[in-house]
Every structure is written in C-alpha cells, then in structure tokens.
Specification:
Helix content: 10-25%
Distance between the termini: 26 Å
Number of helices: 10
Structural class: alpha/beta
Length: about 400
C-alpha cells in the first residue's frame, strides 16, 4: 500500500537559499516529488504532514567515505558478507541525513580492485542510503604526496592500463570517480580515456602538480580536486599549485574535509568563499566511525595499526592522518560556523553541487521528477528525519 504525501509548513533548501514552501507533494507510487497529485477523477488521496516550519533539504550525498562501524571497504571475504556490510553502512548513513553514497577504494593491489569493484554497482537498499558507485582514489598518485596510502602500490599511467589495475568492463562499470595526480607520465591520455571512453569523472589529488599542470589536466577533462590542501603542495603567493585552480577560469569543483582537523577553520572559510557554487563537502571517513577511541588493526590500504582519538585517526606512532570520523551533517554545521555562510549554502555543498558535479539527474535537488530523498533539519542543521523515496527511514528519538 502506498501513500501520497502533502508536506506543509516548511522551508526548503534550494540553490543556497531557504525558500518558504507551504505545499510539497510526494507520489507514493514513484517516490518522486510532484507539483500536485490527483487521481483520474480529480480527487486527491493524501497524507498531510505538518513540518512545523522545520527545514527540508535534499538528502546528503557522501562522495568520499572509506567505511564505518568497523567495515573498511577494502576488506572483502565473500560477496554475501560484503553486501551485508554495505547494508549496515547504508542504514548507519541514513541516520546522518545521507541519501546516497559513493564507496571510496584507496590505493590497493589490482586483485583487490578487481574483486571489490563488481560489488559496487549502483543499487538501492530497502532501509538505507543508496549506493551510487565507486570512487577510486588511486593508484595513479604521487608517492611524495601519499598521505596514508601505500606508496609501493602507486602506479604510473604510461606503464599501466585501466584494465590491468581495475579489471574488465564489468568492474570498470561501477566506477564513477577516479582521483589521480596529473603530473605523472601519461596522465593526460589517461584522463581522456577515463572521461571520454568510460564516462568517469576525474579528480586531481595526492599530487605535487603546479598550477599549469593542473590547468592542462582540466582542459584534458578533469573536473574536480580531491580534499584540497591535503596531500598537495601548499598555496603559495608565487606558486599557487592545484589549490589555485579554485579561482581559475576553468573553475573546477573542489572537495574539503570540514572536520577541523584536516583544515584550519580559516582555510576552510577561504576555500568556500573562493567559489561556493563549486565547493564540495566530504568526510573522508574511515572504518572507525561509530567505534570507541583506541587502537585498531590495519587493512589492505594501511598495513599498520591505527589510532582513533575523537574524530582524529592516525597511523600509530606518527602524525599521519588516515581520515576522519566526522559525519557529513557535522561538516555542514562546521562550515556554517567557521565561514559565516548560511545553512542552505552549506547544505548545497553536500547536495546540489555534488549532483551537478557527478551528473546526477534523479536526486540531490528538491524539484518535480526527482527522487523524494530528503532530510528534515532544525535551524542549527541537526538531522531530525531522513526520507528515502518518499518513505521515512530515520526519525530522531
């Protein structure tokens, strides 16, 4: 049995602004937003929900997550177990306002890419966030900017192929985004092959490239940059590096980790204000999300023990950051606090901007014909409810 919805007395996040909305319709059969709902005789059968002036935003899109609740996405034993773990992650993310997520696979051995990628084709789960595909962060990265990646597994584009490292067409079909270093030999050809041959977005990251090399990569087809300022040359007044591309004429999208650990608050604010329409918020979250502080074992990416202290995760005995344990809703609140932007502007960085960057036509925006994946927020940006396909998946107790 389905229920058509009439949502009243709310404000919606739209293109960085809050708009009063007295009526918002959801088709109970299709799970899509509609302008109105009537049957063939002009009658309506609606369940009315009064949102009490709470804010409705598109459900957040998690562009870069490596895992949570003890599951690192490179850990694979069998298809059934892996799918079950994906469903657990899906249910957890929906509690944080996430409606769709891309699984990030860091630099690992080719056989691991080939085993896992076929499991990451887009799909919906019954009671959680949808899987939107894979983000391969490597292995064509610069060892000098390896971060927590294994430099011994990094590859040169001119000496390898997509098929050698990722597998056959069945594996590659799951990939939606690849992060690479544009200064590596053969990277221009690789960017062209990924974007034109496979319709895969390319992001620049873990790179020592200068500004001009980054500019050439954008002209070859790259469209974004991964966790700007982290694992790349610093912004210098005479040599801006990749970070300087944020204000270039080509104006790529750029992602930021707004956890207060990877970036200083002032740096985050500066980057956001450089181009709010192209700013992307990511968590770069790791498998210790949702777990207690302490020491945890490594995995296929990191063959070392890992230390979790709050939202900070490092390789044990070093200051090398592995990732974050922040949630996307927390990053949104941080951006509003540290940059002075509005909640709607921050929400845009985790929804509409990502939808445009990734070419998503079915979600990420509250408009007729799109999926009714939305999150209900209070004025501080805290998640009260998450709806997927017009069905309530999470309600704060």
């Amino acid at each position: 049995m389905y229920t058509n919805l009439l949502i009243k007395n709310t404000r919606i996040c739209c293109n960085g602004s809050l708009i009063d909305k007295d009526e918002l319709y959801v088709n109970g059969v299709t799970g899509l937003f509609e302008n109105s709902l009537t049957d063939s005789e002009g009658n309506t059968d609606l369940k009315t929900i009064d949102m009490e002036n709470h804010i409705i935003a598109p459900a957040f899109i998690e562009l870069q997550t490596n895992g949570c609740l003890g599951m690192h996405f490179t850990n694979f034993e069998d298809e059934g177990g892996y799918r079950a773990n994906l469903e657990i992650v899906s249910r957890y993310l929906v509690e944080k306002g996430v409606g769709g997520f891309y699984v990030t696979l860091p630099t690992v051995k080719a056989d691991i890419f080939k085993k896992i990628l076929p499991q990451l084709k887009p799909r919906e789960f019954d009671d959680g966030a949808g899987l939107l595909g894979a983000h391969c962060e490597g292995p064509w990265l610069n060892p000098s900017k390896k971060g927590a990646h294994d430099a011994s597994l990094m590859q040169i584009p001119s000496r390898t192929s997509i098929e050698q490292l990722y597998g056959d067409d069945d594996s590659v079909s799951a990939i939606r985004l690849v992060t690479l270093a544009p200064e590596l030999d053969g990277s221009t050809k690789l960017i062209e092959e990924l974007t034109r041959g496979h319709n895969i977005r390319v992001s620049l990251g873990h790179s020592a490239a200068d500004f001009d090399t980054g500019l050439a990569a954008l002209k070859a087809g790259a469209t974004t940059m991964t966790h700007v300022f982290n694992a790349m040359n610093p912004l210098h007044h005479r040599s801006p590096g990749l970070a300087g591309l944020m204000v270039s004429e080509e104006s790529p999208y750029f992602s930021l980790i707004a956890d207060g650990i990877h970036l200083h608050a002032a740096t985050l604010a500066m980057a956001f204000h450089a181009n709010p329409q192209k700013c992307i918020l990511i968590t770069d979250s790791v498998e210790m999300v949702g777990l207690a502080d302490g020491l945890y074992p490594g995995h296929a990416q990191i063959p070392h023990q890992q230390r979790k202290q709050g939202n900070r995760v490092t390789i044990e005995g070093t200051d090398t950051l592995i990732g974050s344990c922040s949630s996307l809703d927390e990053c949104i609140r941080n951006l509003t606090q540290w940059s002075g932007c509005s909640l709607a502007q921050a929400v845009q960085c985790a929804t509409e901007n990502i939808a445009r960057m990734m070419g998503l036509k079915d979600r990420g925006v509250i408009e007729m014909g799109r999926r009714a994946d939305f999150v209900v927020l209070d004025d501080t940006g805290r998640v009260l409810e998450t709806w997927i396909g017009g069905k309530a998946m999470y309600q704060k107790a």
